[in-house]
Amino acid sequence: MTDIILSGCFGTMGKAITDAVSKRNDCRIVAGVDITEGTVPYPVYKSFDEVMTEADVVIDFSHPSVLDSLLEYCERSATPAVIATTGLSDIQKQKIKETSEKVAVFFSANMSIGINLVAELAAKTAKILQGSFDIEIVEAHHNQKIDAPSGTAYMLADSVNNALDEKARYEYDRHSKSAKREKNEIGIHSIRGGTIVGEHEIIFAGLDEVIKISHSARSKSLFASGAVNAAVFIKGKEPGLYSMKELIAED
Length: 251
What we know:
Blueprint: E1 2-7, H1 12-22, E2 27-33, E3 44-45, E4 57-60, H2 67-77, E5 81-83, H3 90-99, E6 104-107, H4 113-129, E7 134-141, H5 151-162, E8 169-172, E9 185-192, E10 198-206, E11 209-217, H6 221-234, E12 240-242, H7 244-250
Parallel strand pairs: 1-2, 1-4, 2-3, 4-5, 5-6, 6-12, 7-9, 8-9
Antiparallel strand pairs: 7-10, 10-11
Helix pairs in contact: 1-6, 2-3, 4-5
């Protein structure tokens, strides 16, 4: 049995994770952390400084402002963490890396196994086609999403870029200049509207042909399921920075 503390338990994803865990028999939520109020079948603390409940892992689907206190809690209690909050700064990502040297941390911009498989496929495609195809990434999300481009778009761009012999720079939306597209760049474009859960497409545009690799999320439940799987996976792991690659490999 994996005991979970859920950070951001009253948020949309927090509710989805609570629902996902209720349908499993290999894990349970023993406490939540959230500054807002609501009703859940477990105790909820306002901050990590107040947490008195012991657990095997923390799942964080909250807000970037919570990260520092979460990492401090995980260090002092030696509790592994699954961090799925998006919109983190480069400095915060570095803090996650530093914390992973002391305690196991599972970090992914997207908890969907499908999107992580797409990232690997896109990287392999980029490596084969590099130099002869232009690469563009288009992402679409609901109108309440704050960060743009999405963390997943950056994850896909980094996966593709890391596969290239000559690293590309990122060009956003192309509205700020009137010029031909440069060869050594990856375009990243954001769309916000309605209740779109998450759409991502990598476009490889070459001479007289276009290759598209896409992923469509139809429900937030798939992200909740991925986060819970990650929590069960990381329980008892040695310090280190883990991702969907390790989870997929173990399966």
